[in-house]
Design goal:
Layout: H1 2-9, H2 12-47, E1 56-57, H3 60-72, H4 79-85, E2 88-89, H5 91-128, H6 136-151
Antiparallel strand pairs: 1-2
Helix pairs in contact: 2-5
């Protein structure tokens, strides 16, 4: 049983899948950072807003806290504080996550497209292969010609 498990675990497809999952997880972190640390701040500058903390409170307590902060000229409670006060629709977080997904999906599309192009090129080269050998009489005549050139 241990041998069967070892054979299964060391099979090429399983190792490839494990590597893909690890790299995919790391790549997801890169995309999240790009969205959170680069793209969303630029969008926020254009609209003076941080999307990740935008929400609509669904509880009376949350709505009252937002109204009180607005009347006092203070900052509206952040998303974490609003969630403590009651349920919220975190539409800004949803936009951020959707943007993460779209960028990640586009990057994966580009990788798959590049892989498919490379695979097609490799298959074309493989199909073409070396040129076929000339017929025996042509090869013999070529050899005679080369010998005559070497003589004189």
């Amino acid at each position: 049983m241990l041998k069967e498990f070892r054979d299964f675990a060391l099979r090429g497809n399983v190792l490839d899948l494990a590597v893909a999952v690890i790299i995919g997880g790391a790549f997801g972190g890169i995309v999240q950072s790009m969205i959170k640390d680069v793209i969303m701040p630029v969008i926020g500058i254009a609209g003076s807003v941080d999307f990740s903390n935008q929400y609509v409170p669904l509880s009376r307590k949350g709505a009252d806290a937002v109204a009180a902060a607005a009347q006092a000229g203070q900052a509206v409670p952040g998303l974490d504080k609003a969630r403590e006060l009651g349920p919220v629709i975190a539409w800004g977080n949803f936009i951020t996550i959707t943007l993460n997904f779209m960028i990640l999906a586009f990057c994966i599309f580009l990788v798959v497209k590049a892989f498919n192009i490379a695979r097609r090129r490799f298959e074309k080269e493989k199909e073409a292969g070396p040129p076929p050998a000339p017929p025996a009489d042509v090869a013999l005549l070529t050899e005679i010609r080369d010998l005559l050139r070497a003589r004189g």
